[in-house]
Amino acid sequence: MTVLEVEKENKQIARQYKELLRISYQTLTDEDKKLIRLAFDTAVDAHKDQRRKSGEAYIFHPIAVAKIVAQQIGLDATAIAAALLHDVVEDTSYTLEDMERLFGETVARIVDGLTKISQMTSEQDISLQAENFRKMLLTLNDDVRVILIKIADRLHNMQTMDSMAAHKQVKIASETLYIYAPLAHRIGLYNIKTELEDLGLKYTEPNVYNDILSKMEETKEDQEAYIESFSNVIKESLDVEGLNYSIKGRPKSIFSIRRKMKAQNVSFDEVYDKFAIRIIYKSDRDNEKFLAWKIYSIVTDHFRPNPTRLRDWISSPKTTGYEALHITVIGPKGRWVEVQIRSERMHEIAEKGYAAHFKYKHGEQKEQGIEIWLNRLQEALENADGNAVDFVEEFKLNLYSQEIFVFTPKGELKSLPKGATPLDFAFSIHTEIGLKTRGAKVNGKLVPLSRELKSGDQVEIITSESSKPNANWLDYATSARARAKIKSSLKDEKKEIAEEGKEILRRKLKQLKITLNESVVNDLVVYFKLKTSLDLFYRVGISTIDNQMLKDFASSRNNTFINFFKNKMRKPAAQEEINREEITTNYDQLVFGKEEEKLDYKFSNCCNPIPGDDVFGFITVNEGIKVHKKNCPNAITLQSNYAYRIISAKWIDSTQQEFTAIIKLDGIDNLGLVSNVTKVISNNMHVNMKNINFETEGGVFSGKITVEVKNKTILKKLLENLKKINGIDKVRRI
């Protein structure tokens, strides 16, 4: 570079730095400015020999990220300094110790968090994006600003991706749509979310993006004229009320127009609400709500509202802190228009997210405040023990979903993700209530636990000390918290049954003159072709392994000499037999969706799943359902691009599966017969009554009972016990 060019570049860098200080959302003290200056000088020095792909000096990137952090996210001096330094430890000779010496512990910790996120090895075979995301969320424990700076870094990378190779553009863009946009949305950074989504679309579907963009340019004048005509109708009435306001149009983002076109299968011209009108008014805190509804009444005096499209986020703000009043009205020329009414304070919160929220709440906002949000994320992190793809899916479900608001019996408001059920509600109140749920009343009526709740429902949970989760609950619960608690409770229950099973086994073997010790347990596990001792004890506990089977085991064991030869002769086939048996009896069937339907499917060649693997189904265009492993290299692409074609799948273990059987009873009617029958059934462990029907005629009793049992042995025992009841003549399964 020539001397002239260097000088020009240095001037440009100095100009950018001044602008950074000028646009900061927080008021910077002299101390703050010193810290930022030192960070700036250090970054300039560290990156002096680096250039970006586009050819410009590398330092422009950290400055741009710091500007996003300072202005759009509205963070403090500590975060601005960390943003300037975010690539220093990773890319240059400066170390973390240097950071701590120069800038103190907080900045060093944030820079360390950002470095950790970037240093992901690319050899791992599980979905990198999901793993990346999980690592990123775990750094939240250190400092939430790590995430915010990472989002700003990603935004600037997306804005300057033109000079990269096409395959890299697509990879980075799809990762952005999959992870960073939902995250920005959840933190309440709507503008950044919108820009990330639009840029993501620009690189993943450039033709679609450019097509919509050019059409929006064409209709721009038309839109401005429309906003003008809308404003003119209501201006006079607003002025009469002496309101201080401004009316702006906000075009819908390209990404959301694309989403609407896809969802409703319509063309660009058929998407009605391509823009919203915003009325932003000045107000003190006391009159905010009152003025919002005043403006609402003025707008609806002139334009007819759609009553089903009223969204009142002023009375109950979203969990992101978003407040506004949204109404959809029929505007001039009979077009539907969304009108968003918000005060300047609400507008700032919608633009800046948490930073603005706490500026208003705590005056000059420094580091407190974001705690509340952190605690909410903490919950999602506590259960981060499954595989990464699952974790991301659950996290996204919880974060990116729309919310519903339901009431407790005392009238308190609870916010839940859309699609939540009474079980999710129970666990959101308290884990103990969730685990002891017996049933639920919605608006005073008993409903199944699988019922989807709607906004405005009043939900009451009926608990019982004897209730405990069963495997079906996993199909009813949608929130990550509820699912994690149910899973761990089911594991505990299996352990409890196994504990009982161990004692039963000890007793039964004693009768067969065998002492239960480690080698006997191992022999039993091999003999019954199981995997672990827990499986063995559990199967004894639920009577899948009965007396006869144990007798067979004992006799095969006593006859050691013959056995030795038998084994010698049978050795080669044994291994194959164990595997095949285990798979065919215990994991023989794949079921799909919440309803666990049995559908036709094929295994995909890219990851060749085998029974027992974590899998999901993907509905292809020509080949029906293809089954992929959850950690298949293609999983992320399919899940981020074709989420609507994914269907959940699981293997069912036939020892765990419940079977339905109908029992027919005949006998002589006498007092207390029905209660004796029901007593026998309810005292029989692991049997569940689904349906019951008795009738008596001329002293003769007949009944039909539908029960759910885990296996035939349990059913046999039940039939024997029913036969013993005084007055029962015949018991049979039909």
Automatic annotation (TrEMBL):
One term under GO cellular component: plasma membrane
Domain HD: 58-158
Record domain TGS: where: 402-463
UniProt pathway: Purine metabolism
One Pfam family cited in the UniProt record for this chain: RelA_SpoT
Record InterPro entries: ACT-like_dom_sf, ACT_dom, Beta-grasp_dom_sf, HD/PDEase_dom, HD_domain, NT_sf, RelA/Spo_fam, RelA_SpoT
Alphabetized SMART domains for the sequence: HDc, RelA_SpoT
Top-level division of the source organism's lineage: Bacteria
Alphabetical GO biological process terms: guanosine tetraphosphate metabolic process
Similarity section: Belongs to the relA/spoT family.
Main function: In eubacteria ppGpp (guanosine 3'-diphosphate 5'-diphosphate) is a mediator of the stringent response that coordinates a variety of cellular activities in response to changes in nutritional abundance.
Annotated protein name in UniProt: (P)ppGpp synthetase, RelA/SpoT family
